Amino acid sequence: MPERPVQQLARRQLDQRLEAIRMSGGLLERPRGGWLATLRRALGMPQAFLAKRMKVSRQAVSQLEKREVDGSITLKAMEQAAHALGGRLVYAVVPDRPIQSTLEDRALKIAAQMTGSVRHTMKLEDQEPMSDLDQRTREVAEELLGSPARLWAMPDGR
To answer: Cα 36 from chain centroid?
Structure first.
């Protein structure tokens, strides 16, 4: 099923939001000691006071801060602690590259795999130019981009 213009627009808008996050550099990178401990200390709030606000023990807050640093904290716990610190949890998965670039690269890779046997045969038979085949590969990639779900249904070839 071909992708609708609404889906393309939604992807472009998401890409713009994600680009803004990527451009922010390390602003959203977790501090070495974790966001919870960093913010708590900046507020001058002892663990015991945060524990009282969260209705947990001081040891539970200590464990929470340690779990944030080692990556084993849950989002729910982060959200509760953020609220108790007078803030909110901001959560995002930010791809390293724009979504459209990822899709285009994937489409070209799959298209090259699909036209690979023809390319191999042409090389064996010393048939040039490859420009027609390269053009066909680009056309196949464009067709694949019309239905992005198809890109992920095909094997990686890894």
So the answer is: 23
